[in-house]
């Protein structure tokens, strides 16, 4: 058991005073002074009553303070609880939103992936169909180099070879050699035409020459090295094939524009029609590969707007555009000459 705490000085004084009063009352009663004893007892009781009242007041104040502290603590607890609940609710809502966003994004991606796969499958089917038709037209004398990627797709090749068979060009000029050169050469071997292919990369020019040799097509097709040189058109310089490589060419009746590659600079293929218009036959066909690309779309639009006699033909298979060129010859008859002489 813990010992009782020592009384304070005040408590000791009060206890002392009570003891003195009790002793005085007892002493007075024993000595027969009953009046004094009663008076001392009355003083003692009055003091005791005052003490009890004081204690009651103190206890009341303590209880009131205690209740206030309890109210304060409860209010702080309530506020904290509300804040925690609010934060949890916000977190749950944010997590719900995030979850919904993620679910939506996932669903959109799945849809896009499914559409992409579907497109790819359809495109692959078209390419396989085109490849089957291409090989039905020829029996190659050596393994064919791969098509697709850097080269014309089978669908584009199929359309190109169909144009060669149906329009029977005598001279085909190709910008950018590769697999297509071999296919074109096979087609021209049957129709009796000739192919000149330009390449700015000596290594790829050589590769195409070897392929043509392997397929015994060097009598039909020739690959010329044509390094890129600056060509200035409308005050703008473009890296384009060295024009010396085509200096001897006349009456090109099919022009295939499949170079220079996009990476050589913006609007890389724009100079083609501007530089080569004079080399075309009076009636010629122009096949423009990668016509879906932004730069090529721009070039196509500007050519058709500015070159007289150049029109785009209807929808083509694959990613190339077909254009038809008819040279417009301005007739200066005697009337024109006379009127120009008299006006001068
Ligand atoms: C669009 S490609 C021309 C491809 C060609 N007309 C064909 O369809 O096969 C343009 C350039 O790519 C380069 N090239 C040719 N063969 C290549 C190969 N196997 N890999 C990467 N580039 C090649 C050549 O320099 C060519 O001029």
TrEMBL record:
Q: Which UniProt keywords apply?
A: Membrane, Transmembrane, Transmembrane helix
Q: Which InterPro entries match?
A: SAM-dependent_MTases_sf
Tree of life domain: Bacteria
What are the transmembrane regions? 37-56
Q: Name one Pfam family in it.
A: Methyltransf_24
- Provide the protein name: Uncharacterized protein
Q: Which organism is it from?
A: Paractinoplanes rishiriensis
